[in-house]
Amino acid sequence: PLAALPVSWALDNGLGRTPQMGYNSWYDVECAAAMNETFLKAEADALVAKGLAKLGYRYVNLDDCWAVDRRGPGGTLQADPAMFPSGTLKPLSDYVHQMGLLFGTYTDRADKTCAGRPGALGHEALDARTYADWGVDYLKEDSCFAATDHAKAFAQYGAMRDGLNKTGRPIFFSLCGWNDWYAPVGASLGNSWRVGPDDTNWPGILSNIDIMAGLGKYAGPG
Fold first, then answer.
1. Has this prediction a pTM greater than 0.90?
2. Which one of the listed residues 133, 142, 149, 199 is annotated catalytic?
3. Does the active-site annotation cover 127?
4. Of 69, 149, 198, 210, which is the active-site residue?
5. Pairing outcome for strands 59-61 and 21-24
6. Start-to-end C-alpha separation, the chain
7. What is the DSSP string of 52-99?
8. Beta-carbon neighbour count of residue 165 at 10 Å?
9. Residue 83 to residues 34, 63, 67: CA-CA distances in angstroms?
10. pLDDT tens digits, residue range 66-99?
């Protein structure tokens, strides 16, 4: 599905000046076997062929379930070779870039993702370097199984923010926290921050609009 989410001027990485728009795999294929390198290359092809890339829909983002359930040697993340034959996301990233698009992926600030794959907790700097080496342009960090204490949540997001900044590669950092209490500090942590639940119907969309109605003062370019 195509998506356009609220963005704010946040990190000093030159990103988030306009809304991030493109494709995200979650509500299309979720964790199905179809969420693989061949399928995602086809999605990149479609963005270009249908003229959407020229309109600003430039991100091709895969969501949860891309990694195997254990870290590799040295604690590094490994892509599921059944879906990504090289065991990394770099070939897919390279293909997306060859199409003139941008590539994004997913993690979680806890020790596991929503689907039980390795999360970022305690590995933020290592994972950030891995993403940079793979040519990642966008990182969504979810909050399943993570601390709900505000200070801990901010510290965990801050650890990944710092890790990404230290790589020297501009990577759009999208916080997926589901709560409006991220809004006052969102600009110090990421380029965008999610403040409501998943929505797959109009009542859900209207609920999120109500949540965001009072948060405009925390927004910026985008």
1. yes
2. 142
3. no
4. 198
5. parallel
6. 20
7. TGGGT--EEE--SS-B-SS--GGG---B-TTTSTTSSSHHHHHHHHHT
8. 16
9. 8, 13, 9
10. 999 999 999 999 999 999 999 999 999 999 999 9
